[in-house]
Structures are given as C-alpha cells and as structure tokens.
Amino acid sequence: DAGVIQSPRHEVTEMGQEVTLRCKPISGHNSLFWYRQTMMRGLELLIYFNNNVPIDDSGMPEDRFSAKMPNASFSTLKIQPSEPRDSAVYFCASSVTGTEQYFGPGTRLTVT
Amino acid sequence: QKEVEQDPGPLSVPEGAIVSLNCTYSNSAFQYFMWYRQYSRKGPELLMYTYSSGNKEDGRFTAQVDKSSKYISLFIRDSQPSDSATYLCAMRTSGTYKYIFGTGTRLKVLA
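Above: the input entities. Below: the structure tokens describing the complete assembly.
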C-alpha cells in the first residue's frame, strides 16, 4: 500500500514568495496532521483535521500560514509570504484512530 | 521548562548492547505515550505506543511508562547497526490527537 505522499520533496524559494505544500493521506485514514521540524524546536504540530474539518490549529505560527483539506485524499499547507525563519522540514501524517500516526517523507523548505 | 524532555545524545553503543532511551514529562494528564524512530532525512516511523502505565513488548523493543515519576523508557535488546537513528518520544492527553514530541535522542550502534 502507498504511504503518505508529500510534494514537493524539496522547495527553495525567495523571501516573500508564496509556498504551497501538498499531502495525500493513506486511503481510508480520516485524520490528517501537519508538522514542522527544526533543529531548535524539534517536531511541532501545526494543525490537524478530522474528517476534513480543522480541529486544532493552535500550532499555526501566524496568519501567514493556512491549511485546507478540500476532500479526504488531499490537503495543502500554504505560506504567504514566506520568510527565512520558515525554513524547516514539513511533515504530513495520517491516521485512522488518531493514536497511530503515519508520517510522509517530508518537504524540505528553504527560504532565502 | 518544556513539557517533554529528552536527552539529545548522541548515544553510542556497541552492537549487541541493551539500549535505554528515556523521556521525562511534566503534564500528569498525558495518557498516550509513543515512540518513533527517524532515520536521517526520512519521516518518523511509529515503533510502538502504550496507554497509561505499564510495559509493552514488541520483539527487541520494550516500552515502559512510570506515571508516578513522569518517566517513560524504550529499551532495545541486542542492538544492531540498523537501529542507528534518532528516537522520538511523543505523548498526549485523552480527548485530543495533539501529540507533544521530545526533541529526540540520536543513537549510534557501532559494528
């Protein structure tokens, strides 16, 4: 079975540009999570959805970040405008129960 | 003080050794405790989880939770070079799926 799919795998952009990260969860999973990982702060939950509905977005750092889940098989995380401090690895994870979360390979974002 | 504390390592052990990885936490309401393994430039991979207190064993891996001490451990028996990775603990309360992660312990198993 295919795992969680994320695209792009690497993104390099200039400060001020819009960045869109994409995620396809495992088929049949009804919860989706967006995380950010940095050396300084580790792995942090940004937002999670249950049945396509945002449940907790308290980890979204500021209004420049937004996430959508238009259907059960697709989600996006958008940063507009991007800043150098947004440079990190962004992971998407999905789950059936919410307890066992399965992570994608991540998108490595570099903002110059 | 962070809610979840984890020694960053690196922890270097010889092949075949028993490895002990630990996390401490401050929130007594945590009920679900997870261990993830993350290889370099890969996503975290779920190893095992426990609910509330007690032990859980899966092959060479044993997870322990001591809620009275707010301390969890992951033991790896007969460690192998392929176990070299960063190990992340994560935990949450009931009623939310929001996990709080430790910063990870980097493990090196030397052949």
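Note for the figure: Chain A touches chain B through 27 residues (CB under 8 Å).
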